[in-house]
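Quick check before the chapter quiz. The format below is the same one you will see on the exam, so make sure you can read both the input and the output lines.
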Amino acid sequence: MTRRHHYRRRTKEPPALDITTFLNLMVVLIPFLLISAVFSRVTIMELSVPTAAGGGVTGKPNFAIEVIVRNAGFELANGSSVVAAIPKKGDQYDMKKLSEVLIRLKAEYPEKEDATVLMEPQVEYDHLIHVMDTVRSAELRTGEGEEVQKMVLFPDISIGDAP
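Here is the expected output.
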C-alpha cells in the first residue's frame, strides 16, 4: 500500500511590515533637511545679452556705458571710444575708483539705466560678480556719521566678451 501524505496547505498571513527603522530615519532626516535648506540661498539676476542685430535708427544720440574688464585694469567706453582707464592696484582691481567714475556718469546721465560689462576670457568669474555689483549700485557715506545710503546706478546690465 502506498501512503499518501496529505499536506494541508496552511494559509499563512503575510508578515507585518516593521517600519520602525524607517520612521527613525525620517525623524533624523527631515529636521536635517529643513535646517540645511535655510543655509542654501539662490539668487537669480536678470541679465540681457547684447545681440548682433542692430535696432532701428532713433533721433537720440547713442550713448552706451561699457565697462571693459582686462587683466591690466578697467576701461570705460562710451560705445565708440575709451573714455577712462583705471589700472589695477597691485593684484586687485580698483573698485572704489570705478564706483566714483560711475557715480559721475550717473550724475551726467540720470535717465540712463543700462550698462554693459565686457570681459577678457582670462579674467576670473569672481571679478565679474564684483564689477556687476559695483555697476549696479554704490554706497554713499553721508557726512561724518555712520549713515550709508545705497545709490542705484545702472541696474540693467548686459554682459559679453571684451573686444
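If your answer matched, good. The CA atoms of residues 49 and 158 lie 5 Å apart.
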